[in-house]
Amino acid sequence: MAGSGHAPLRDDPNVLLTIQDLEVEFPVGKGAVVHAVSGISFDVFEGETLGIVGESGCGKSTVAKSIIRLNDIKAGSVDYQGHKLADLEGEALRRIRPDLQMIFQDPISSLNPRRKIRDVISEGLAVWGDDRGSWPQDRIEELMTAVGIDPKYGDRRPHQFSGGQCQRIGIARALALDPKMMICDEPVSALDVSVQAQVLNLLEDMKERYGLTLLFISHDLSVVKNVSDRIIVMYLGKACEIGNADELYEHPRHPYTRALLASIPEPAPTVDPSDGDIEGELPSPITPPAGCRFNTRCGHASDICFTEEPQMQRVPGEDHYFACHHPVEVSVGV
Amino acid sequence: MSDMDAETTIVGADVDEMPDDAVEKELGIGFWVCIGWLATIGLVALLAPWLPVTSDGAQGGPREAPSMSHWFGTDANGRSVFDLTILGARTSLAVGLFAIIFGMVVGGSLGIVAGYFKGKVDAVIGFIFFSLLSFPQLVLALLIVNAFDQVSLFTVAITLGILAVAPVGRLARAATLVFAEREFVLAAKVIGAKHFRIIIRELLPNVLIPMAALGLLGMGVAIVAEGGLAFLGLSVDGGESWGITINDGRQSRDLQENPWVAMFPIGVMFLTILSLNFAGDRVREYFDVRETAF
Questions:
Q1: C-alpha distances in angstroms, A191 versus A106, A168, B10, B14, B108?
Q2: Lowest CB count within 10 Å: A131, A274, B83, B186, which one?
Q3: By C-alpha distance, which of A25, A35, A27 is closest to A283?
Q4: In which element (H, E) is residue A167 found?
Q5: Residue B148 predicted with pLDDT over 60
Q6: Over pLDDT 70: what percentage of chain A?
Q7: Which of B91, B74, B95 is nearest to B83 (CA)?
Q8: CA nearest A49: which of A209, A225, A173, A196?
Q9: Dihedral, CA atoms, A88, A90, A95, A98, nearest 10 degrees?
Q10: Cα gap A153→A140, rounded to integer Å
Q11: Which of the four CATH numbers 3.60.15.10, 1.10.3720.10, 3.40.1190.20, 3.30.70.1050 does domain B77-287 have?
Q12: Which of A247, A251, A279, A249 is nearest to A264 (CA)?
């Protein structure tokens, strides 16, 4: 799974964000580094919802955080409407950040326990004043109502709310700055299943209403499938398959994608569940396997998979790209 | 995905589930007894100039036992130990309070800055803390006090304040490290808040609570330390403090024959330190809301 190469990048005026050859490493002491993200390229259209799926530890959150520079980027570029985010520092970076807001995985931890939620939500306005101007202070209540929090609870503190409510408050805080793009890092993973749907609906609703572009990260394929227009499947810091959500779900070409899909418990599976056995553990990202990174667990791996990294290639005629030496053949008539 | 209307369906369902106001937490009677004692001592110390107490000259014969006219007895010079204890409270409390405020302001700022910026800043500040800690505290105190010709209240307080910098600072740094990784701090960064704002609005309110608890304990330590300095004859020149009075009371055979000179100020100091420790501990517990990491 290599997934290097620029094949999935689209030359189109609607592109809002382009990531090229992004590499992120974290030192873990004694000179060792975790290769969290190793050369990933993709783009996002304005108004699109891009889903990123993969196992824990595959680097999907790191990609998200790299975009708004919450971690250091080792190499590669992040291009947002002509701004080279990877090269920005200090004040220039601070000025661009409100355009790209983030929703975090742990809703409780993402709110300061010592602040009233009204202050939490209006923090962006307090920071930027009239500079951005979209949500004046007196519209905070409107915003709270929009995300489903009664404004009369504005003086309460986060611990008095449930996880789902906290996530709504986090969404309101992000929306207050009228962002272009929302990066949702596992926004529903910590919530009860019954609340997940509510929060997902809210995100969709807000996306419609405020014309947002969403980057939606999750390890849960069924969640991602429901919200995404396009999906990236990641494995060990690389992209293995990128494509239109429906196309990718119906005709997965990469053995890993296929295995992931097969692992969703579904009454009427589109792939044979027996296809889906991924054996063994995720290899260490400190010493990732040579060649295709999936080779240690792939049933189709041959010699070339251990020596040569597969490049991204396009499925002819489709918005669908994969990186595999032995792609799964699409059975005719599916 | 169903077409649920976010505004109606969800608002109703969710808001009705609002839990009642946070469960009433109690500080307990012990806490209030301690606060009562501290308030009394503080008030008496504050009002001492207007109270009929004096340290000038003898109010009675030397070494008189406690009586109705001299509740705590008198010392070798015939001065009332009760008066001395009250006047001593002024120095002892002022020294303790100032020392810990100094420690919290200087140590706290350094610690938060170190924990927030990490890297080189942390390395430099960490080195300062370790230097302060690896120096024998008593020697450090002696050095600073001896650097001044006249030992004043301010000198003693500053000395003890410097000693408080490292422990308070290390606590502030540790607490900051925990909170700086929390997502609400990341969220503030993403919003575009400046470093100063993040430190003041997001970190300080959270770090202040463990610091306040330590501050109450630290004030007790500072009062005891002042007593220690007094024991070495290095407290405020020509002034009164609990330490100085206790030191006077241990001269020659006083401890055996007229123990009240030392024991009354020791008792008052003991109760005060005990109250500070107990109150500090309760404050820490009280604010230990679910999600805090201490």
A1: 9, 12, 15, 14, 36
A2: A274
A3: A35
A4: helix A163-175
A5: yes
A6: 91
A7: B74
A8: A225
A9: 90
A10: 12
A11: 1.10.3720.10
A12: A249
Q: Find the angle CA(B4)-CA(B6)-CA(B7) to the nearest 5 degrees.
A: 130
What ipTM goes with this model? 0.86
A110 secondary structure, DSSP code = T
Predicted TM-score of the model (pTM): 0.81
Whether the CB-CB separation of A174 and A147 falls below 8 Å is answered with no
- Cα distance between residue A33 and residue A256, in whole Å: 25
Residues of A in Cβ contact (< 8 Å) with B291: 108-109, 113, 159
The percentage of chain A sitting over the pLDDT mark of 90, rounded to a whole number, equals: 16
Which of B22, B188, B206 shows the shortest C-beta gap to A114? B206
Verify whether the Cβ–Cβ distance B15 to A153 is below 8 Å.
yes
The domain spans of chain B are: 77-287
Task: Residue A106: count other Cβ atoms within 10 Å of its Cβ.
Answer: 18
Instruction: State the alpha helices, DSSP H only, in chain B.
Output: 11-16, 29-47, 81-102, 108-117, 119-134, 137-146, 153-180, 183-191, 195-197, 204-231, 242-249, 254-257, 260-287
Question: From CA A29, how far away is CA A25, in angstroms rounded?
Answer: 12
Residue A105 predicted with pLDDT over 70: yes
Q: Which of B184, B196, B199, B289 to mutate to test the interface with A (most CBs of A within 10 A)?
A: B184
Q: How far is B38 from chain A (nearest CA, A)?
A: 28
A331 — phi, psi (to 5°)?
-70, 135
**Chain A residue with minimum CA distance to B186:** A70
Q: What is the pLDDT of residue A267?
A: 66
What's phi and psi for A152, nearest 5 deg? Answer: -70, -15
Minimal CA–CA distance to A63: which of A236, A212, A281, A210? A236
The C-alpha atoms of residue A238 and residue A228 are separated, in whole angstroms, by: 19
pLDDT tens per residue, range A37-84: 888 899 899 999 999 998 888 888 899 999 988 888 888 889 998 888
CB contact under 8 A, B19 and A70: no
Mean pLDDT of chain A: 85
Contact A68, A100 (CB under 8 A): yes
Greater confidence, B231 or B222?
B222
Query: Is A134's pLDDT higher than 70?
Result: no
Residues of B in contact with A114 (CB under 8 A): 205-206
CB-based contact A112 B18, cutoff 8 Å: no
Q: DSSP class of residue B61?
A: S
From residue B206, alpha-carbon distances to A185, B111, B174, B265 in Å are 25, 13, 12, 37
Q: Using pLDDT thresholds of 50, 70 and 90, give the confidence band for residue B185.
A: very high
H, E, C per residue of B93-123? HHHHHHHHHHHHHHHHHHHHHHHHHCHHHHH
Task: Give me the mean pLDDT over the A123-127 stretch.
Answer: 86
pLDDT digits (tens, 9 = 90+) for A239-298: 889 999 888 888 888 888 888 888 777 666 666 666 666 777 788 888 888 888 888 888
